[in-house]
């Protein structure tokens, strides 16, 4: 009787309608999808038909002269170029959801620009000197908010906000309960409806755009590598958000990077030995996270630096506990932090020229 029950159970799974199989398998992660495909030929066919593999972001390089920008695809190790005359005279400040946030110092014009659709959204003029700036979501969304914070004194910061369609920026001074020196070297992410700002020394400021409140979280700063503040190593600090989690990455010369995740409950930074399949793409202006990438790209950190004549992007594998390429000088202190940024890849490559 027991054997018959088991046989009926297996037969039930084997004769599931294709539509139902597709519905079930389409909701699996890439890792589980691959495991499912090994069950039988029928499941393999269904798993392949609904398998979703994410594309990694591209690294966009800013030319010192001219209007031709280079884009590096780390998955294919290819470099593309695209002429973008719209960016002439602009400073790129941030990137999210396929949109660049630009600033023209000469005219104090702030605007959104999609480099692949060429769509542009202008914002009210605003003087941005050395403060950092970010936005919450695509400017096409009614929930889009721009946020920037500027140091006034050790106990006072000026926070300015704006949104697409506004006629002016709103600036309010806030007092800090703890010293918080805001500068261009800070890191900024939007997570769970809040803007998180990590200061140069590792203190965490939080701004609520709905309640219009600013506070300093009593979270001890993450431990820095030895000599982190020597020779400008603070240029090698990065911050990213992924599905409600906040990550901070510290790099220092040839030492392995230290990666922390913010534990909101216990109010502490926890050092991560694995990213559990997440891939981080770190650049000075903005960093990003991806899941469901193929091969060795999973559980790694990709940095905004390319070696071997543009053929290899520097990365660190948490599985292998090593950099790729291994024998490289990771001189973050010597790197221009404003020379590149990670951006969403385009769907159409027809407008690009490929550099072999």
TrEMBL record:
Pfam family, one: F-box
Domain of life per record: Eukaryota
SMART domains assigned: FBOX
Residues in F-box domain copies: 10-65
TM ranges: none
Name by which UniProt lists this protein: F-box domain-containing protein
């Amino acid at each position: 009787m027991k054997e018959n029950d088991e046989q009926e159970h297996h037969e039930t799974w084997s004769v599931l309608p294709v539509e139902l199989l597709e519905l079930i398998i389409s909701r699996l992660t890439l890792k589980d999808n691959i495991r499912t495909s090994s069950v039988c030929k029928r499941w393999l066919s269904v798993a392949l038909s609904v398998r979703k593999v994410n594309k990694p972001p591209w690294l966009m390089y800013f030319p010192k002269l001219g209007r031709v920008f280079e884009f590096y695809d780390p998955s294919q190790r290819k470099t593309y170029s695209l002429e973008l005359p719209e960016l002439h005279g602009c400073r790129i400040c941030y990137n999210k959801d396929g949109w660049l946030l630009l600033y023209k110092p000469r005219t104090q014009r702030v605007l959104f620009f999609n480099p692949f659709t060429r769509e542009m959204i202008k914002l009210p003029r605003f003087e941005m000197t050395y403060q950092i700036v970010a936005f919450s979501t695509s400017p096409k969304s009614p929930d889009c908010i721009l946020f920037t914070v500027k140091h006034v004194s050790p106990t006072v910061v000026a926070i300015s906000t704006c949104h697409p369609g506004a006629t002016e920026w709103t600036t309010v001074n806030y007092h800090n309960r703890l010293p918080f020196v805001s500068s261009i070297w800070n890191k900024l992410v939007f997570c769970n409806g809040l803007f998180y700002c990590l200061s140069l020394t590792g203190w965490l400021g939080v701004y609520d755009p709905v309640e219009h409140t600013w506070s300093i979280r009593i979270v001890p700063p993450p431990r820095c590598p030895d000599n982190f503040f020597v020779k400008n190593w603070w240029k090698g600090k990065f911050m990213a958000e992924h599905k409600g989690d906040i990550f901070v990455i510290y790099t220092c010369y040839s030492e392995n990077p230290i990666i922390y995740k913010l534990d909101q409950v216990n109010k502490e930074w926890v050092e991560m030995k694995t990213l559990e399949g997440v891939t981080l793409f770190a650049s000075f202006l903005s960093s990003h996270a991806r899941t469901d990438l193929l091969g060795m790209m999973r559980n790694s950190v990709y940095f905004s630096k390319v070696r071997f004549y543009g053929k290899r992007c520097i990365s660190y594998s948490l599985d292998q506990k090593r950099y790729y390429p291994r024998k490289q000088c990771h001189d973050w202190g010597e790197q221009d932090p404003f020379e590149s940024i990670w951006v969403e890849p385009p769907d159409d490559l027809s407008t690009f020229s490929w550099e072999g």
